[in-house]
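Hi V.,

Quick status before I head out on leave. The structure for the redesign project is tokenized and pasted below; the design run finished overnight.
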């Protein structure tokens, strides 16, 4: 007996819609022929800068801004981190980057860092990292079909600004690995920066 479909072939779904669906993440990804696995990820690690100036900036931002909304979290916590990474490496930071593969895979990546070595998608969420990760995973599936890059893995992270969770899409195996670990900012800033630099520079 075949399993009932979750997604309606006649419907159109944006990336943000997947964070609203009341279905298990694994079942949603199965609609795309992709398996979800929870893993303790061994992310690439590099830290070519002194993180203290950025840590000081983030702490100052938190004293000035109450990051209750998604836009406040983006301005006070997320953008300064991504700007620091991209400025050091001299790579572009794409914001609200539009992608359309088909009616099930379309929308905008909150942040997208394309480099020759790797592609990194960053999804900003105000709350609920679990559903946010579902959206991130679908964005990685879309990126897999949209890009002509031949890198074997695509990386992504979903963040509320003060909490970060990473994921990896193994393209050939059609497996999304969801990190069982989360990282807090500013306390785990070194780990977040190390992962972001490691992914982009590896």
């Amino acid at each position: 007996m075949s399993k009932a479909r979750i997604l309606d072939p006649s419907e159109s779904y944006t990336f943000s819609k997947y964070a609203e669906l009341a279905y298990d993440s694994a079942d949603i990804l199965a609609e795309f022929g992709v398996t979800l696995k929870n893993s303790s990820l061994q992310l690439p690690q590099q830290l070519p800068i002194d993180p203290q100036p950025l840590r000081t900036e983030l702490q100052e931002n938190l004293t000035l801004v109450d990051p209750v909304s998604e836009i406040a979290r983006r301005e006070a916590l997320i953008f300064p981190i991504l700007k620091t990474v991209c400025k050091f490496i001299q790579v572009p930071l794409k914001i609200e980057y539009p992608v359309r593969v088909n009616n099930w895979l379309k929308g905008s990546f909150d942040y997208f860092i394309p480099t020759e070595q790797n592609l990194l998608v960053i999804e900003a969420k105000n709350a609920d990292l679990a559903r946010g990760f579902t959206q991130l995973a679908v964005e990685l599936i879309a990126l897999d079909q949209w890009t002509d890059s031949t890198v074997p893995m695509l990386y992504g992270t979903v963040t509320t600004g003060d909490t970060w969770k990473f994921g990896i899409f193994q393209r050939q195996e059609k497996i999304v690995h969801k990190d069982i670990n989360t990282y807090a900012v500013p306390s785990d800033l070194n780990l977040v920066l190390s992962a972001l630099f490691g992914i982009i520079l590896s």
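Above is the designed sequence. Residues 70-89 form the longest helix (20 residues).

G. will cover questions while I'm gone.

Best,
W.
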